[in-house]
Amino acid sequence: MGEAPAFFADNLMGDFPKKVDSKSKGNETAIVVGSKIYVIDGVDHGSGSTIGVRIFDKSSGEWRIPTVLGTKPKPSKDYSAVLLNDDLMLVVRGNSGSSECFWFLEVGTPFVRQHEKTLGNEVVAWSKGVLGNVEKPIVISGPSGVGKGTLISKLMKEFPSMFGFSVSHTTRAPRAKEQNGIHYHFTDRNVMEREIKDGKFLEFASVHGNLYGTSVEAVEVVADAGKRCILDIDVQGARSVRASALEAIFIFISPPSFEELEKRLRARATETEEQIQKRLQNALAELEQGKSSGLFDHILVNDDLETCYEKLKNILCLREAAKSAPKTLPESFNLSIEHSMSKIDQKLLINCGAAEHENASNNTYILDLSSLKGGSPGRTRGLNIRCRELEPL
Ligand SMILES: Nc1nc2c(ncn2[C@@H]2O[C@H](COP(=O)(O)OP(=O)(O)O)[C@@H](O)[C@H]2O)c(=O)[nH]1
Ligand SMILES: Nc1ncnc2c1ncn2[C@@H]1O[C@H](COP(=O)(O)OP(=O)(O)O)[C@@H](O)[C@H]1O
Predict the structure, then answer these.
(1) Pairing of strands 88-93, 102-106
(2) 23-32 — which CB contacts under 8 Å span 24+ positions?
(3) DSSP class of residue 180?
(4) Which ligand is nearest to the CA of 264?
(5) Would you state the pLDDT for residue 212?
(6) Model pLDDT for residues 132-156, shown as the tens digit of each residue
(7) What is the DSSP secondary-structure string of 97-163?
């Protein structure tokens, strides 16, 4: 039998006005979820260290060390945690700016449960909170040579600040004009297989004899830049993303005819005859699945390029999005160690420590949690924060 975390055992009903749900002692913060106590350890163990999580099971009296997935926050002296529901907590990291201060710890989400089954161990997963209303990622699939890359390039060129490309990993060799880190992360099969085992990939598939995959990081980098992520992945990958927490719009690009597809693939002149044959063979199954699986929200026929591109922009509501108001993030927001929090419905009131400020409301923020999107693996988007002075509760 182990011992319950001291600060819970000492004073389970204690008065801890500084925290909403969590109780802290030293660098540790604990929060109760059902019969378990999750202890978040913020001790800095040297350069590159991240915070740890351990679980005390009250019913068995045992400590457990879970497998921790996702990008972890860096250590800090002060964390506060709020339970949002039975499988999700918001962990606020003190003494940090808006891009590093909101984190979600998932303890029972479908993503966590799925990994518990495969790993045979208790799992928790981190997801960093991203401020602002970044739109859903876009998954684009379709057979080789249909024009996916051409359409995506047009979109990125016309709206460079709005879209970011998810750079996949692949074991296939680079083509003449392809650059590592821009078109793909070109990698060895054994390295990629190991990273897949380590849970670094959101999805992966074997396509035309090579491994392709989207790393969690590839999607996170785009979300962190406040951009909408575009994924160019095959139908198997689209199916995996559909089953994941990454809510996305799924678009299938279809050719006007099989003959035209073959013509484009040959005209591109990037593959050997053998590779072209393999791609054409696979195209038959991909077209069948793309059109009949119900997986895709939209099917676009890429006959005339400009017409197809206009339709794509319509689907993505680009004119409306371009007109929407810019994000209003409090640039100076910095959560001090002295902060306190209280939760009212889907809103969290955060007081960043009034000691050095004459007007306390200047230093109080409202964090709106009502439109959270995404989650591990990847970022949790849709967090909105504003100064209380500007907008009362
Ligand atoms: N599942 C999955 N498929 C990918 C990924 N990256 C690329 N693909 C797909 O792999 C297939 C082959 O891509 P590529 O070798 O670049 O050839 P291309 O489609 O002819 O340009 C295409 O269907 C891509 O959509 C990925 O990360 N995951
Ligand atoms: N609508 C279109 N009409 C004619 N050629 C096209 C069209 N869309 C793309 N192409 C050409 O077809 C070839 C394959 O396009 P690409 O974007 O590389 O396909 P994918 O990324 O789906 O494999 C390229 O040479 C491209 O210039």
Answers:
(1) antiparallel
(2) 24/78, 24/79, 24/80, 27/75, 27/77, 29/79, 29/80, 29/81, 29/91, 30/5, 31/81, 31/83, 31/89, 32/8, 32/83
(3) B
(4) 2
(5) 98
(6) 777 889 999 999 999 999 999 999 9
(7) ETTTSEEEEESSSHHHHHHHHHHSS-EEEEEEEEES-PPPPEEEE--TTSSHHHHHHHHHHH-TTTE
Top-confidence residue, 386 or 9: 386
Q: What pLDDT shows up at residue 326? A: 42
pLDDT of residue 18: 38
**For residue 234, which ligand has an atom nearest its CA?**
1
Expressed in angstroms and rounded, the spacing between residue 202 Cα and the centre of ligand 1 is 15
Atom of ligand 1 nearest to the CA of 142: 23
Active site residues: 175, 268, 279
Q: Kindly state the tokens that stand for 292.
A: 């009949």
Flag whether the pTM goes above 0.80: no
Which run of H or E residues covers position 170?
strand 168-170
156-178: per-residue pLDDT in tens? 999 988 899 999 999 999 999 99
CA–centroid distance, 173 to ligand 1, in Å, is: 12
Instruction: From 268, 271, 278, give the residue whose CB has the most ligand 2 atoms within 8 Å, as the site to mutate.
Output: 268
